[in-house]
Amino acid sequence: MQEPSLTELKELALRCARSAGELSLKRMKEPFQVEYKTSASDLVTAVDKEVEKHVINMILERFPDHGILGEESTFTGDYKQFDTLWVIDPIDGTTNFVHQQINFSVSIAVYYKGEGLVGAVYDPSRDELFYAVKGEGAYLNDRPLHLEKVVTLEEALLCTSVFWNKRAEQIGIDQIVKKLAGKVRGMRLLGSAALEMSYVAAGRLDGYVSMSLNAWDFGAARIIVEEAGGKVTSMVGNPLPFDEKSSVMACNPAFYEELQHYLNLSDNTEKGS
Ligand code: 2AM
Ligand code: CA
Ligand code: CA
Ligand code: CA
Question: What is the ipTM of this complex?
Fold first, then answer.
């Protein structure tokens, strides 16, 4: 079978992101079931599952030989068997979806043999679609995104998603955040990692840091940040994996090294959650 072109993959990824976002907005206006996944601060709704299934159906209808890695695990095959892998988070920021009804997104990425080809992050409540195709640049709706402004760490607005759990305390994340907060212009916590990283690409935030994210949280946005000219690695400077958890730092390249120095983490914190 002939490999699909980048244009075909991009068109489907963007169509899926918009369609998923519209479905979640529609369902948000009706009553929906909310469950605890692992605790009262880890929610999943019937909408997360329905939207994931909807996206999977759209992908498999067009490309039945592609694999899917989604947060809600509604794809029944073994995703590792496939060269072309779609990495999807149907609702990134489920807590915001339930409580705020804004600040959530759908994240859809396409990888070929582990290489990121297309990333799309859609915020349906603001109708903002962030996307990128490898080698072809990043966009917000139709506006090209370029991180041209040189920002110092002192001038930076940084964002983090911190889980204030035991593990975070053990490895001293509270100390790291405190140290950073004293250095930078400001810190923000928005609650959708995919959106927060996309905001770095758009220059609304200058950097994003997380101790531990899943592949579907950063799979699309890392391509968008890189294509906008940003730097994205794990906190210890490794390339991000495409199908595993990792810590993440995504930022304006001007202060990447200084930020890493400030984070000052050792290797054993790399995959902490
Ligand atoms: P979710 O809403 O898809 O679960 C919240 O600060 C951000 O972190 C969201 O992007 C959220 O994604 C993600 N998140 C929530 N729980 C997480 C966990 N246990 N590990 C990694 N990321 C998590
Ligand atoms: Ca979740
Ligand atoms: Ca997520
Ligand atoms: Ca999710």
Answer: 0.96
**Does the beta carbon of 52 lie inside 6 Å of ligand 1?**
no
Q: How far is the CA of 88 from the centre of ligand 3 (A)?
A: 9
Q: What is the pLDDT of residues 137-186, one digit of tens each?
A: 999 999 999 999 899 999 999 998 866 555 666 666 777 788 888 899 99
Which residue's CA is minimally distant from atom 11 of ligand 1?
A: 93
Tell me which residue has tokens 């582990």: 114
pTM: 0.95
Residue 92 makes CB contacts below 8 A (sequence gap 6+) with: 104, 105, 106, 107, 121, 192, 193, 194, 195, 216, 217
Distance 251 CA to ligand 3 centre (A): 19
pLDDT, tens digit (0-9, with 9 covering 90-100), for 16-39: 999 999 999 999 999 999 999 998
| Listed residue (226, 45, 238, 49) closest to 130, CA to CA | 226
Give the domain range for residue 128.
6-145
**Nearest ligand 1 atom, CA 217:** 10
Share of the chain above pLDDT 90, in %: 79
**Residue 268 banded pLDDT, cuts 50, 70, 90:** very low
Q: Is 89 in the pocket of ligand 1 (CB under 6 A)?
A: yes
Ligand 1 near 269 CB (within 6 A): no
Domain count for the chain, please give it. Answer: 2
As to burial, measured by CB atoms within 10 angstroms (0-12 exposed, 13-18 middle, 19+ buried), residue 15 is: middle
Q: Are residues 124 and 182 in the same domain?
A: no
Claim to verify: residue 141 and residue 201 sit in the same structural domain:
no
CATH number of the domain to which 196 belongs: 3.40.190.80
Q: Is 71 annotated as a binding residue?
A: yes
